[in-house]
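Hey all, sorry for the wall of text incoming. These are the three entities for the joint prediction.
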Amino acid sequence: MIDAYRRFMNIEAPPAPQRPKGFFTDTSLCIGCKACEVACKQWNQLPADGNELSGNSYDNTGALGATTWRHVQFVEQAKANNSRVGQRWLMMSDVCKHCANAACLEACPTGALVRTEFGSVYVQQDICNGCGYCVPACPFGVIDRAPKDGHFEAGRAHKCTLCYDRQKDGLEPACAKACPTDSIQFGDIEELQAKARRRLADLRARGETSARLYGMPESTEAAEVGHLNAFFLLLDRPEVYNLPEVPRLPRKTMAQRYAISAVVGLAFAALSAVAFGRRSG
Amino acid sequence: MEMNGYTVRDGKQVADFAALKDDGSTACGVWIYSGVFPGEGQNMARRRNKGDGWISPEWGFAWPGNRRMLYNRASADPQGRPWSERKKYVWWDAAQHKWTGYDRPDFPDTKAPDTPGQEEGVGVDAHSGSDPFTLKADGRAWLFAPSGLKDGPLPTHYEPLESPVKNPVYRRQDSPIAKRFSRKDNPISAPGDPRFPYLATTYRVTEQYTSGSMSRWSSWLSELMPEMFAEISPELAAEKGIKNRDWIVVSSARGEIECRALVTRRLRPFQLNGALIHEIGLPYHWGYKGLVKGAMANDLVPLSEEPNVYIQEDKAFTCNIRKGRL
Amino acid sequence: MSDHPSPRAAELGVPAGYYDYPVVKRPVWTWEVPAYFWLGGLAGGAFLVSSAAELFGTDEDRLVARDGFVVAAAAALPCAPLLIKDLGNPQRFHHMLRIFKPLSPMNLGAWTLAAFTPVTLARAAAEAGRAGLLPGPLAAVARLLPRPLMNAAGSVLGAVLAGYSGVLLGATNIPLWAKSKLLGGVFMASAASSGVAAVMMAAARRRAPEKTLHKLSRLGTLATLGELAVLGAFLKQSGRAADPLVKNAFSVPFWAGAVGLGSLVPLVLEQVAGRRTGKFTRSLLTVSAVCSIAGSFCLRWTIFEAGKESAGDQAASFGLSRRTQA
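and here's what came out:
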């Protein structure tokens, strides 16, 4: 019966899960060349967002968005008093984190957002109806809806696909392929995590004591959203890179919110019953 | 086939450039591509054999003569043994009396390391078996060039043609043999000229390519570096009342341009002879056409030429800035 | 990694955060969404009040309930079109119902609305049939509809519709919406007060008995007081995340519209009306109801728009995600 329905509706079984793949972005190796940003836009044929000088170091694209799926930050860090002591220029290629517990995926009412066989979070463009709920759900401000009146895939949600099409063909994502310093590494997530731990130990041993990993299974930031399939080696506190200290998963408080709403609703129902009770008035 | 080269008599393709003759019996369009079509129906550039090693000599074609690395004889010591086991590349095989290795040796195949150079020899015959740099007259690389240059041979310090300071090393301020173009529209301001108290330098950013005449037509590159700007230090910005992204005018003895100010602590004022000298950084990628347009830093630079290779002096000249637009 | 101090930014004495870029994305929704939340809440509240009046009330109260069901249906009718209009791809609105996924409040709401709208329409049709407003065969069908069952189903669905919208906004990472867990309660209370007001307005205009009007007025007063209490707690818990609502961009429409017009004015008018009778009372209560309904929209709209503003507040986002107060 179910099989007949599946055949009738042309429903295919989802591909069997494979070993999860992801990105390890080592910001200590990033040179800010933005090759990842361009390679991503070229492979995915994303339009440019506009031509305006931001004045914020060499970052003129600002943030991730519907048509910017890799974005390189340029943090100019120096003492506020113009002394050049301890000054440094941090570069970081940001991307969708492909969270183990993805807020966007949970919020999606249509099932357009799915977990792929590679462990990544993917927007099915033929399903998304542009409800926009994934946009405020994401704790990292990654996913966005293309403008309804725009020329690019108007009114639907977009973000990094972890180059699902390239992975299908056994290729690594375009950004990792283009990265000249291996700041962006693509691979089996467990192997990358092991590699990251070694790299962190190495950097700490060399005196880079402010280095830390962001998005590992054991990190505090994994408390709600789980480990990140695109995780980072950072050289300062996450907030320096606009990353939340403990990214929130909306689902975690949802039962309480419903309960509070229900209590108010029941109280009102009770008041109504009393108000119209035959003896009242 | 014209590029690969052929024997004139029968029109047969030559195997590689070593088969080319200077007596008119062979013809070749460009010798470095000789060997890419070594025979009828053969195209070395189409080969796709990865092989076992890390050189993959049978993958495509590399000029000249499918060498992946030029002068690779230098990877072996004068006796023909690899300098390092880890980096071994080509070496002398005494048993077979020939050069061998992972790559095609860039050296006469059977010239033993102990072969003496022929004093009257022509071309590579003049080189000994331990002279790897086959395109050089003496077969050797030079760290020090005693002849052939218009200046030198010993290095010295001259100030740029335009400098905010006097040469602290010699009485001679600037290069005596730099080519100058003394014209009304190409004046050079004198050291310490109060009209142009700041140092300017021009440079590239990664996102645009040279003058930008190609990259400014790519929307993906243009959005990354969309406008001409001048980088200035917070100290100079405060002195001039300039805020980040304000319009400013940068002027030199030859012209003036307008652009945005990018205030950054990456620019540090110099302490020169006890004076604080500010530096202005100018990328030179913009022009009057393209998806993004902007002023040209080259409008400010002095026209001059370095005496050997005729590169103009863009990296240091003097300028002034003010808040506002042209 | 949590115990590892990462003191660089702190050492340098510079604040965290990447320039002034927001941490989270600004919601893309427009006015249709608060308008839908407002009407959906009003419809749910009105249906619930009408059901209570029919179940527990006197015969006079039941007459009022009839009008209430029609009001609920009228308010529910535009909800789906508003929701659909706000979609990025409205022609795909039915994709909301291709799966049942209560984990997503948006999906739950879509199903609730899809069920509630026909129930209210049927319930209103039943009343229309009873009032002889339908042609013969339709009236016969309408009489067959199980009213108590519809009342029960509609009350539950209406309550869900009234309350889920606050949970939907709360289950995000927008500081104003998410910081306090009470937003669902605020919207539910506002739905209650505006629902009562809508029924009261219809009753006052339809010359309902004064006894029933006073019951509605008292219930409205209690609902408004409850709303103020939950709103106060919500604002207190929200702290600085509520700045765009109480201090900055939307403070005037919030204090004057949502609180003043929507709660304080009706409270005063209902107190005055409670001691009087006659035509004046009806006018007072009509005005009170209109104010309450308008205020209810102001509340949804200001919290919605101020929430969008708070998405741009980097520090508020950091505050939301910090385990310890920095």
